[in-house]
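Follow-up to my earlier ticket, as requested here are the two runs.
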Amino acid sequence: MHHEQNVQLRHDRFMGTLQQIHSANTAAVSTHWHEAAQQYSMISPPVQATQVGDIDVEHVHFRSKLALRGNLTLEDIVKIYRSQTPEDARPNKNLYAIEPPHHPEIASTVTRWNQIVRDGVKPQ
């Protein structure tokens, strides 16, 4: 196998893994919205947006009504969007910690990355 083919294969596998993580995260967020709706005797509408980045107006209205009915704070809403739970408070489920490297020149970068995975980005 040529070097270029090997690089492409690794890239394709990596992108496939990212897509699987994204799909799992999207499903988890949908489940959290559904569970939040049930707490207030509401029904989450089906997804109408067909493309990534589309705005689903029905969901915007539903989520606004849910926030009002539940007296949810902005922090509560952000936690639902991020799929944060008391059991798993990581703010972005699409990010995963990296094993500490054996190369000292990238240790600080990996440490910072893992801090972001755990705590999110904190403005400096």
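Run two:
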Amino acid sequence: DDDEFYDRTKNKASSLSRAGEKKAVETAETLLDKKECITKEIEEIRDALQEEKKKFAKEIEGETEGADALDAFMSGLSNQI
């Protein structure tokens, strides 16, 4: 009666509806646009990373005047947390 194992029409109907879906066709223009957007994002992330490295280096330089490198690194970590 309510045996789901033998009633596979629901699965077939859902797979048929998925087969009818149209997917967007990727053209050279759309792919180039996507590539351009991704490269811009990568450059922005690289710039942000460089800025953070500079900030961290300045913090380390300021703290190393009276301490060794390990102490400066550990205090930098504790400040970030």
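The only thing I checked on run two: Helices lie at 9-19, 28-63, 69-80. Let me know what else you need.
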